[in-house]
Amino acid sequence: MGNRAWLDPVIGGMAILLAPGGPAAARSPQQGSAAVVRGHADIGTAKLYYEVRGSGRRLVLLHGGLSSSEDFEAVIPELSRSFRVISIDRRGHGRSPDTEAPFTYEGMADDIGAVLNVLVNLGSVKDAAFAAELGARARALLEEADRRRDEAI
């Protein structure tokens, strides 16, 4: 997989982005945390809902179209036993209000990066480099999904 090892297949319109990090970044299942940090990140052009749970290597869950982060509710408790799980509702989805902005892959990637930056400022995500890198990875993932959709048409 090379430099795309972080990219899991898009299944059912959903994706999982796993932050880079070696075994030292991982935690055993017993070290997870039940605490949930939630709120709306004000990114200037929108207020996007997020939740952060668990500890360990960071895992960002991206929901598909016409859904929300609630789609992950069945798996988040288990994932958060081993990972710091970050779930985000995109604009107009779940607990994030709609805006006038059009839905674009570029906009979605920018929004994800902006929410991660807010979480860095709040202390919920401690690594600013991670937030910037994951924003870029989200952009690549969404561009790949857009390319695949165009090829399928």
Helix content: 25-40%
Q: Helices and strands, in N-to-C order?
A: EEEEHEHH
The residue-averaged pLDDT reads 74
Mind summarizing the main beta sheet? 5 strands, mixed
Alpha-carbon Rg, integer: 15 Å
Q: What percent of residues are in strands?
A: 15-25%
What order do the strands of the largest sheet run in, or round the barrel if closed? Answer: 1-4-5-3-2
Q: Which consecutive residue ranges, at least 5 long each, have pLDDT under 50?
A: 1-13, 21-32
The coarse overall form would be: globular
Q: Total number of β-strand segments?
A: 5
Count of helix runs? 3
Give me the secondary-structure category.
alpha+beta
Assembly state (oligomeric): single chain
Terminal Cα separation, in Å?
A: 26 Å
Could you characterize what this model shows?
The chain has 153 residues and is α+β, with helices and mostly antiparallel strands. The protein has three helices and five strands. The protein is globular, with a radius of gyration of 15 Å.
